[in-house]
Amino acid sequence: MSSPDTTAISRRELNKTATRDAIVRAAIEQLKSDGFASLTAESVADAAGVSRRTLFNYFPSIEAALNEPTKLLLDRAVVAFDRLDSDVDLLSAAVYAVESLVDPALLEPVAALYLQAAAHPQMARMQLESWNTCAEQLNKIILQRAPEGTELSALVFAHAIVGAGKAAFALWAKELTGPIDKRSTDVLRDILAEAIAQLRDGFPSLQQRADNPGRP
């Protein structure tokens, strides 16, 4: 049975999570309905049912609140990668980590925010920082799982995985023709998994062309 102190702490943490989620949802909904130019700390705080001061207790900026889904998605992928049995090779573990991202409630806002960031440098910068943080976390895990590897090989490996992920988002955005919904986010997840699989399998389509240089 939980002690009163433990219960109180748990409730506080749940309240903090609920407040953080409310701020993020409010920022995303206002971005969808009114556009980036309409976003202010006051309007987002009002929509979230909190004060301006509370908003800034949770996030240093509106852009940081908008970046939260991307951060959570990448954190979830890193955790999935880290939890796999050490007998699983690193690239297969990376494919599994991407394939584990099946929650449309998380992937859809990340996809939408990726598209929005193309027109907003501050959002793009924060997304890039999240990808770089992901690479740093992967690098640490890789060194732990393969201690015989060099620091350079771990860095290259980690950044190759992240680069594949970023390339998948770019291709998905280029080919997107309809709304961002479960179908389009399923396509995104499949492209992400295929991008990592290309690393794992040594880019077979490119190798095939190299083996058959005369093929059109």
What are the defining features of this structure?
216 residues, mainly alpha, Arc Repressor Mutant, subunit A, Tetracycline Repressor, domain 2, 10 helices, 79% helix, globular
CATH class of the largest domain: Mainly Alpha
Overall, the morphology is globular
**CATH fold field value of the largest domain:** Tetracycline Repressor, domain 2
Radius of gyration: 20 Å
> Mean pLDDT score, rounded?
89
Helix amount: over 70%
Do you know the CATH architecture of the largest domain? Orthogonal Bundle
The multimeric state of the shown protein is single chain
- Largest β-sheet summary: none
How much of the sequence lies in strands comes to under 5%
Structural class: mainly alpha
Number of strands: 0
Span of the ends, CA to CA: 70 Å
Residue windows where pLDDT falls under 50 for at least 5 positions: none
Topology pattern, helix = H, strand = E: HHHHHHHHHH
What is the count of helical runs?
10
Structure description:
The chain has 216 residues and is mainly alpha-helical. It has 2 domains: 1-59, Homeodomain-like (Arc Repressor Mutant, subunit A); 63-210, Orthogonal Bundle (Tetracycline Repressor, domain 2), CATH 1.10.357. It is built from 10 helices and no strands. The chain has helices at 4-34, 41-48, 52-58, 62-83, 90-99, 104-117, 121-145, 151-175, 182-201, 204-211. The model has no long low-confidence stretch (mean pLDDT 89).
